[in-house]
Amino acid sequence: MEMPAESPFRVFFIPFFVPSHMNPMVDLACAFAMQGVDVTILLTPANERLIKSTIDRTAATGLSIRSLCFPFPSEEVGLPEGVESLSTVSRGEEEKIYLALDAVNGSIGGLLRLHRPSVVVHDFLFAAVSSMVKELGIPCVVFHGFGAFPLVILTQIESLLADVSKISNEGINVPFLVRGVPDKVEMVESELPDFYRTRHYLNENLHKFNQSLEDCNAEVVNTIYDIEPAYCDLYSQMAIKPVFFLRPFTLGLINENGSSSKKEISAWLDMQARGSVVYVSFGSFNYISREQCRELALGLELSGRPFLWALKERDFAGDGENLLPEGFESRVQGRGLVCKGWVPQKAILGHLATGAFITHMGWNSLIEALVAGVPMISWPLSYEQFVNERFVTCVLSVGLRMWDGYRSSLPEEAAKAVVKAEDIARVVGRFLPPGCGDDEIEALRERAARYQPLIQTTVEEDGVVWKDLTKLINALKAYVPGDDDLG
Hints:
The protein contains 22 helices and 15 strands. By secondary structure, it is α/β, with parallel strands linked by helices. It folds into two domains: 10-253 and 457-477, Rossmann fold; 260-456, 3-Layer(aba) Sandwich (Rossmann fold). The strands form three sheets. Strands 3-2-1-4-5-8-9 form a seven-stranded parallel sheet, with helices on both faces. It has a six-stranded parallel sheet with strand order 12-11-10-13-14-15. Strands 6-7 form a two-stranded antiparallel ribbon. Helix 14 crosses helix 20 (421-428). The radius of gyration is 22 Å and the shape is globular. Residues 254-258 have low confidence and may be disordered.
């Protein structure tokens, strides 16, 4: 008599509607699949198109992974059909993407009841999902798209908001100390996340996010323990449920088909001197003003350094006409490469020619720079990016601020504080090829380079990240309905 086949261990992943959240969760989903787990990623149609090639490429290796679509509530939230991501809406319509979080609860709940997965892993922004999953009697894991340092700092800042308001009311943007953390971390009111400074979905629904953390069974933080051990330990103490620190980088283990743009960029980088190129990117959904964009172009030109600038339409407000100074691209031809659209950021950072990274301080970009051992020039714009900057410049000391003057997380304020071309050139011009820079730059390079082998060791197939992943999967498989958390 044949024994019935054992049911597969099926895990559903639910990422938020923006590449900076989707990409690390898809990375984690691929890691689960590589451990023999049957993986399904829940996505809306437009967001599925963004990562379908990655899912298909992974499935082609024989791993059990697929996507499952649910409708985006375009009409309900007042967005055009097909506009389903923070990376495709204007700044003024971002709240509509957040409102969709509540509007899709019915669709997600219906899919979970229909398919009854073994486990659900969801972005922390889907606050209602934890309670849905709890009612189904299956374990639930909350995924945080950024690291332990910003999680700890933001938690501490929330307790100081009354003091910050007092500073703001006095009209003085003076630094205040974030208490209860391992390092000296100072913030100013204008650089706090915008969701603390204005009416915002995230701040207004803070109680829902906290309830979700109570209803879940575990948390996963998108980081590597060895780069921030003190903050990982502190967050583990602060959290209600067990915390796992996982950043597997599986996408680097799965062969990626070369695109024409990737080949063109690689060929250009191959012609540059080792460590000479300054890479510039502000992520997938950040704005800089048209005036600031032109000053940046002039600053890069004045610096005399080779540069590669990933320019997206979301980097500026408007239609993009006359964005760059007249004749700019012809004047920098050969020394500078302006790429309009998607670029292979990991490959660029990992190229031997890349010597510095002007970044908005998004958590994924920060981690990718550390993986490549590349020092950073920080230019935070919004959300928790000014907090992340403190981690790079004050804790790890692997980066410099582009500008020490007034800055703001609110775009209308930031637009009034334009960093001039001369100031940009002064900072960028210091990043000469290795061995040619001043003592501070050489020290930054040396410290940044130390993280490459450290991270490589942790993410290797027998490294600590994979061991922790196995520990999490085994705990999920051993889950007994009714348990509050994983043993």
